[in-house]
Amino acid sequence: MSEFLTLTITAMVPFLFVAQGTMLSGRAGIFNVAQEGLMLLGAAVGYIISLKAGGNVVGIIAAALAGAVVGFILSWATTSLRLDQFVVGLALFFLAGGTASLLYRVVIGNDEPPRIAPLPELILGQDAMVFVALALSGFLWWWLYRTDAGMRLRSVGENPKAADSLGINVARTRMWAGTVGAALMAVGGAYLPMVFSGVYADGIVAGRGWLAIALAFFGGWRPQYILAGSAFFAAMEVLAQRAQVSGVGIPHQFVSMLPYIATLAVMVFALRWALVPQFLGKNYDRESRIVG
Amino acid sequence: MSGIRKTFGPVVALDGVDFTVADREIHGLLGGNGAGKTTLMNVLYGLYAPDAGTVSIDGSAVDIQSPKDAIAAGIGMVHQNFLQVDVFTVAENIVLGTDSTGLTAADGSPQTATQRITELSERFGLSVDPSARVADLPVGVRQRVEILKALYRGAKVLVLDEPTTNLTPQEVDDLFSSMRAIVDDGMSVVLITHKIRETMEVCDRMTVMRDGRWIATVDKADTTADDLASTMIGEVAGSDADAAALAEAAQVALGEEDLGEASLTHPLPGASEARPGGGAADPVAQPPARVTVRGLTVAGPGGKPLVDDVTLDLRPGEILGIAGVAGNGQGELAEALTGTRTASGSLTVDGDELVGRPTATWLRSGVVYVPEDRQRDGILPGAGITENLVLGSHRTRAKAGMINWRAARAEAVEAIKEFSVKTPSAATACGQLSGGNIQRVILARAFAHNPKLLLLHNPTRGLDIRSTQFVYDRVRNAAAQGCVVIVISEDLDEVLALADRVTVAYSGRLVGEFPRGEANPYDLGRLMTGVGA
């Protein structure tokens, strides 16, 4: 049982980074749907840089920067150019995923990939990133609900016109929220080769990016519930792996399905709880004469 | 502000407008819809960048690029559609964007913010609960929040855009006395409105705009409601009907200043005495009801019905007015009464039961609906006028599934002439027409169905005076021919001007009932807020 718990806590980490990043962008109104691609990019960059520049910390920072670049493109294209968020997000999913694959092939080629050193254990058999992820969730909660800047960010996602009329720079707020959010997503991806496999592979993310979007909805776009939800999602992931390996009497596909079912159930039955930012995915045009 | 020009694509919204507000005055900015009043103030508030012109405050030119600059320059604006974050509290909405260092800063700023809000609200008679969530508040209170937002930022000039929309007469009185208190405190107020009555009641000076141009600026002492009316309309439009419409508006306006009741008994132009069931007809000789509604109910979420047990008897030729503050189930009631929303109960037209039947049956039985949201519910914006006119009769006019477009086009051209739709051609996409012309198209289609029950929801919202008068004439005409008309409107003046009988929608039910001439705006106002129901 304690092994199950340990594995679950480890599995929570990528979910936390990616879903909190999704939440942060989303609360400002940027609906990023490129998580799967960003995680792949983060995994590839994190792996390659750790290997070549020597060190997991450098790898994680490099992955964050790579994610930030993609997030900045998304934010810029949807604020300055007012392109459709979903279309740009899908394009960036392919771009980021493709870039990850390309980088890996250019740098490593078809050789047997060398393994990178796993993240060292800190305490309780957990690595430092576990605590970073937990601290990040707590910080985001405090920042969003207890600070002026957090309130401004939330107002931009709820009613950008109101925020604009009060002198808040909607585009700038969205720009950095989208950038930081995407950086967090890439960090979530970089964690995968450093803990689970030691190497990069094109299938390494295995749908966790898409699940993270579901997790953001599941958690009602609130950091504290996303933290709780990530435990559930991670437990399902561990359970599904066990079902696959040892067989616990239920098909592993069934267990893998549960997070999606749970998210659907939340969306359907807990409408009041599953709050979604009013302007999630909607661009803001000050001079638009169509009432939003 | 001088020489302000603003274009949206090919449309010139403002054309060299000059506008000056003096210290400590309430300045009315008067004009019909599309006159450019709001656009001008949006330029002042930094929401629209002007193509030309300058803004100066206290004699020195200022460059306003964004609302931030405008706020810094001491300009506050209360928009018609409130700019509030629904899920935030009153205090959060007011403080948002100001330079406070977080709501729980060490110096105890939440207290100071709340204290400041409380102090402002007491000083100007704008009572609010700072900890309430704005989404839970009624419109009147949300408006106070908007005004407090501007005052909290130290506004010197406060712009109010059509602030009386959706307010009851009592709330309007309160608002006007708050405006007076604000001006007495050394600020200036700009009141954007299309209602002459309001400017005459509260303003010191007024500026009239038309078609994006400055027309006149006058002192209240030097003008009359009639003068303002003709200035608003302009000379080009000096037809008799327009003059009549404005005389009517002015009479209601002036009458209400003398507390109202007498003015409503004035004979109104276009209200035909020959109407079968209308007006003060002899109760003994009343013809039987043409439309009966029994216990019409629309279920809502959480067990509370959206439309609750509505029962009506409507005689041929009768115009029923339903007043009420927006959001009291009017939209659902309109849809239930026209068969476009599932409801229980009974509705008969000439004895035929219609509840539970498909909408095509309702339409064939003569139930015609002119919805509130013209763009969304009334037309296919991308389709031409001909296509839009064919809608609804597409089944009856088709032969073997084929529509005779040649005939349809000929009819459309006729309808465009009859309803004076301003359009380049019958093929022009409806969405490109102005609001008034869209409404004319919808009315043309409505009357092509030979209505027995015509329901109009906010039929003149956003229309200029000419189109408004056109709608009123058509409605009275239809009633004179025996059609039952229901007008649901949030504009109390409109209900009082048109209806033979007035009732009020409150919380999904119809409360109170007054025959023409006995409806007092203040009594209706009490019913609209649920007091004394």
From TrEMBL, chain A:
Listed transmembrane segments: 45-74, 86-108, 128-145, 175-193, 257-276
Entry keyword set: Cell membrane, Membrane, Transmembrane, Transmembrane helix
CDD domains reported in the protein's UniProt record: TM_PBP1_transp_TpRbsC_like
Cellular-component GO terms for this entry: plasma membrane
Keyword Oxidoreductase attributed: no
Database matches in InterPro entries: ABC_transp_permease
UniProt topology in membrane: Multi-pass membrane protein
GO MF term list: transmembrane transporter activity
Protein name listed in UniProt: ABC transporter permease
